[in-house]
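hey so i finally got around to running the thing on that chain from the lab meeting. sorry it took forever, my laptop kept dying and i had to restart like 3 times. anyway pasting the input first so we r on the same page abt which one it is
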Amino acid sequence: MFRLFFTPGWFNGVDLLFEVISLIVAFSISLYSYRLYRVSKENKFAYFSLALLAITLSFLFKIVTFANLYYAPIREIAVDVLRPTVLPSLRYADLLYRAGFFLQMATMLGGLLLIFLVSQKSRKRLTVFHEVSQIILFLYFVLLVSVFSNFEYFVFYLTSVVLLTFIVLNYYKNYLNTGRSNTLLVMTAFLVLLISQLLFIFVSLDTGVYVIAEAVQLLAFLIVLYAYMTVKRGVGRK
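ok and heres what got predicted. didnt touch it at all, straight out
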């Protein structure tokens, strides 16, 4: 059975609870951002909503894939459902797991890429040809990294760290220019998320790091949720 890396046995299943909470939080942020877009008509909120929706899907793919790894009853149900497509021998089981991990990584990196673009100074990204071509090139590299990460998991987390570093720097510059406390809060959230991705890189050295990384990652999304709820209240008063 294919696995990206090994996790502490006692934490198997508990981490899925963390992922479910993170999924709910990410989806809530996506909804908050979409509502802000409808009120303010600022495209950045629509793009942020789409980015968090992609991250929500990433958590969903991870939950489904890891649940199949952890629980035999769920695995048996999946086998019964997929048997017509993978043949009785299930020779392609590893390929199906790889597909699950690929979808998890591609949607997460795609979401982070979109947040990176949103955090930059406003530009006509969807109307200028060379800007659109750059986005297509970025997406190509995201897909390429997601495929390669199926063989070397740390490449995925290393790429996440690089994207999050630029996101944090962009929000820091925005904070220096605007002085808004909410921008500082969002920057802090992504800094915490960056730390969690750094921790995930070292899971192979000590599986206990996985537990800490999961907790730090959840904390990051809770901070983002709080920041966006603050923004929503501010917009509602207008």
